């Protein structure tokens, strides 16, 4: 039967913890932000969306569409999307159990852990569910957590931890940078923390936090402190060596650099973190996000044994299996290097246009996205619709201090790795043309 396209709906999305609504226009559009702060005046933004055809080579069944170059969801490979069309099957059938088990084993290779005590989790939910896994299982009410603040999403992680009763200390850096090692060392020396959290790439600013030296510091100054990484916008495009760097937890999501449709919370926890969860004095503060409930399920699936706590999505697991199979065809080091090379090319083009990045320091710039300050006199509400007409979808800003002053360009997965696509070249060309149409004269 011919494939029917789904209706073109764009429902408004709630903010991080359902505090802000955007009733004026649909949030999930080229003109919008991922989670809209209440400081943005939405009255200036367009109320309709202009559609344009993708400039990428035509896929076998994907309808023509604007190329999605936001910091997630990203463009998806055809084979991954076809995996979503897998026939319906039981979540405890032999075939599905084998697929899920292989998926969990492949995650160990992606995160670079060979420690049998490490535990992967794949749960139905968004990347935000990873915060709940950490807060509900590893932290008990009243325990101290140090949150390294680099933007909107590190703020959100802190909010989540507080919901579960953690005593949170935020070590915040100025917009566009990160807390530095000497100040982190000072904070760790002044108080004993149960955990330290770091947002590897804060999607609101494009700031990349260094993990290896941070881990060395934590293990030296406060060896009992768990090292927890929000890797939602970094896993599969930024290097993460779970075992070698002594990490205790990395949480991420399916729809970014891993290249699978949204709907899966993906995480890896160390043996030390798992013992922390097992030995807590109080029960986990969540039912669905309870490691106590999920750990035997994950272990059974990886051992190819049927198991049940809550129903997973077989179609999404098949898509994730396909995405991971594609990723692991080559050494993950090559994937990281390819993203870095693409990022360097994009950032040079941005500089050549006379534009500045939110993350000003080169060693603090993410390789899967770029946050770009708008030039004087150019508004995102004008620029983004022009880009959309050219078939390119960028994201608006979401950091509350600078939201209206910048846009975000996502460059992860097939858009930078598939040599048959010209997504990046077309995006750079379109950005230059759109800026000119907004009156920008260039550098």
Automatic annotation (TrEMBL):
Pfam families: Aminotran_5. GO terms for cellular component: peroxisome. The keyword Transferase applies. The modification N6-(pyridoxal phosphate)lysine is found at residue 256. Its EC number is 2.6.1.44. Its cofactor is pyridoxal 5'-phosphate. One of its GO terms (molecular function) is alanine-glyoxylate transaminase activity. Residues 88-399 form the Aminotransferase class V domain. GO terms for biological process: glycine biosynthetic process, by transamination of glyoxylate. Keywords: Aminotransferase, Pyridoxal phosphate, Transferase. It comes from the Eukaryota. Substrate binds at residue 408. SUPFAM superfamilies: PLP-dependent transferases. InterPro entries: Aminotrans_V_dom, PyrdxlP-dep_Trfase, PyrdxlP-dep_Trfase_major, PyrdxlP-dep_Trfase_small, SP_NH2Trfase/AEP_transaminase. Belongs to the class-V pyridoxal-phosphate-dependent aminotransferase family. PANTHER family: ALANINE--GLYOXYLATE AMINOTRANSFERASE 1, AMINOTRANSFERASE CLASS V. This is alanine--glyoxylate transaminase. It comes from Parathielavia appendiculata.
């Amino acid at each position: 039967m011919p494939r029917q396209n789904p209706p073109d709906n764009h429902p408004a999305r709630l903010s991080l913890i359902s505090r802000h609504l955007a009733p004026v226009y649909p949030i999930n559009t080229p003109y919008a932000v991922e989670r809209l702060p209440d400081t943005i005046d939405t009255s200036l933004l367009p109320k309709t969306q202009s559609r344009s055809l993708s400039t990428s080579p035509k896929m076998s069944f994907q309808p023509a569409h604007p190329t999605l170059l936001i910091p997630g969801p990203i463009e998806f490979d055809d084979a991954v999307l076809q995996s979503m069309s897998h026939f319906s099957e039981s979540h405890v059938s032999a075939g599905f159990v084998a697929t899920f088990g292989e998926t969990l084993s492949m995650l160990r290779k992606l995160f670079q852990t060979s420690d049998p005590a490490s535990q992967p989790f794949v749960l139905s939910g968004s990347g935000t569910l990873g915060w709940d896994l950490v807060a509900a299982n590893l932290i008990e009410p009243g325990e101290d957590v140090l949150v390294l603040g680099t933007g909107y999403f590190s703020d959100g992680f802190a909010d989540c931890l507080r919901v579960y009763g953690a005593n949170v200390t935020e070590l915040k850096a100025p917009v566009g940078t990160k807390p530095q090692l000497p100040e982190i060392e000072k904070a760790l020396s002044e108080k004993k923390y149960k955990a330290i959290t770091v947002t590897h790439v804060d999607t609101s600013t494009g700031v990349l936090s260094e993990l290896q030296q941070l881990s060395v510091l934590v293990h030296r100054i406060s060896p009992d402190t768990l090292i927890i990484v929000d890797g939602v916008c970094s896993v599969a495009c930024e290097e993460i060596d779970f075992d070698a760097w002594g990490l205790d937890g990395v949480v991420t999501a399916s729809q970014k650099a891993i290249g699978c449709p949204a709907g899966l919370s993906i995480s890896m926890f160390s043996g030390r973190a798992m013992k922390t969860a097992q030995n807590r004095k109080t029960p986990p503060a969540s039912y669905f996000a309870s490691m106590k409930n999920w750990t035997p399920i994950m272990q059974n699936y990886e051992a190819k044994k049927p198991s049940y706590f809550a129903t997973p999505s077989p179609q999404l697991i098949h898509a994730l299996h396909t995405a991971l199979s594609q990723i692991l065809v080559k050494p993950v080091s090559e994937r990281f290097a390819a993203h870095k090379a693409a990022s360097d090319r994009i950032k040079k083009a941005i500089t050549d246009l006379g534009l500045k990045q939110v993350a000003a320091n080169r060693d603090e710039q993410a390789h899967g996205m770029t946050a770009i300050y708008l030039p004087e006199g150019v508004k995102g509400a004008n620029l983004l619709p022009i880009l959309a007409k050219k078939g390119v979808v960028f994201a608006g800003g979401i950091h509350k201090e600078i939201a209206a002053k910048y846009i975000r360009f996502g460059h992860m997965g097939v858009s930078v790795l598939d040599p048959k696509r010209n997504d990046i070249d077309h995006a750079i060309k379109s950005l230059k043309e759109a800026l000119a149409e907004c009156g920008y004269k260039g550098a």
